[in-house]
Amino acid sequence: MSKESNTKYAILGLLTTECTTGYSMKQMIDGSLNHFWKISYGQIYPILKSLVEEGYASVRITEQDDRPAKKEYSITAEGEKELQLWLQKPLQEIQTEKNELLLKLFFSRHQDVANSIDLLDQQKNKLQDRYNTYMGIKDMITTELNDELDSVYWIITLDYGLVTTRAAIDWCEDSKSKLRDQKEE
Amino acid sequence: MSKESNTKYAILGLLTTECTTGYSMKQMIDGSLNHFWKISYGQIYPILKSLVEEGYASVRITEQDDRPAKKEYSITAEGEKELQLWLQKPLQEIQTEKNELLLKLFFSRHQDVANSIDLLDQQKNKLQDRYNTYMGIKDMITTELNDELDSVYWIITLDYGLVTTRAAIDWCEDSKSKLRDQKEE
DNA sequence: TTTAACATGTAATACGTTACATGATTAC
DNA sequence: GTAATCATGTAACGTATTACATGTTAAA
Hints:
Number of helices of chain A: 7
Low-confidence stretches of chain A: none
Largest interface: A-B, 67 and 67 residues
InterPro entries (chains A, B): Tscrpt_reg_PadR_C, Tscrpt_reg_PadR_N, WH-like_DNA-bd_sf, WH_DNA-bd_sf
Largest sheet of chain A: 2 strands, antiparallel
Number of strands of chain A: 2
Order of helices and strands of chain A: HHHEEHHHH
Oligomer: homodimer
Pfam family, one (chains A, B): Vir_act_alpha_C
Strand order of the largest sheet of chain A: 1-2
Structural class of chain A: mainly alpha
Protein name (chains A, B): Transcriptional regulator
Mean pLDDT of chain A: 93
Strand content of chain A: 5-15%
């Protein structure tokens, strides 16, 4: 049983949105799926090709007056069926996500506490930036797209980023306190 | 500028603990670093070899009466210096962690809401199991190892797992409510 | 005797990124 | 003219997993 990657389904799913070209998919992923998925052109184009070969998508080349020609992909009936099957398939085990900060802290026993606190501050800043970005997107969705039926799912996925990032930010502060307390002892 | 992997430093760091063999490192990682790092034998043994070649570690073969012979590694002065440098190096950018559930939810607009709720329940159960495991380890550390100086860092890394998992569990419930609300409309 | 735990290692494969390569069109 | 955006693609490389391969010792 191979641990089949979901990347293929990310592309297939994007074919059900307004994304029809490899280029626009990349933009969509970098923009809206950014906090839970990423993908490079080095994967997108070969996967699109293979989706056509498998019968899950079709292509046609569209000439444009004002832009370079593009390949427009659309999902086939078979592709939609395949997507449905994947959506209904049970989730795989949650994989451990590597965390550089935690790895460093784990080996920081003989290290100066000041350095650990500095690392925690670095992380907190990065997390705070991320949090603000998500908040900005959420505001945009709730004010501009409140009528869209789809927006519930957008909000849900964004909220995941927000709540877990918030928890991580608070943890940074907590951990700094713990380290300062220990220093005094 | 290559995006140098931290895996080498995970091994180097383990050499500062009671772990001296590839086998015991694997156990340690699967046990105690489990929520923020993982590694396979296919990486451990080649990396240990390369650490020796780089002068960061040394080996000796130890025969045992009751067990198969093992290779015991120790960190060298140079290795410790290298580890220090890494500990003090600024954190890389936080990478986006792929999340199968969020990917599925993002493409669930035309899907039956019941299926989305089912996926959220699956995730919640997995998260709850994980949370309980972390709690068990934390109890063990706080009751049995409270005297150890090192325990602060263990607690901190564990707490990260606890607070982010807790946040994710709550998010699952929230999201289920949101989907149910929308269904009624 | 056979299973589990201890112990080490390599080869094939999968997955993903980055660099490379090309070229059109638009806006400054 | 030149930078930015649009647009597609491949080759080389890095990273990590899995399967394969081997063997010891202890406990049931």
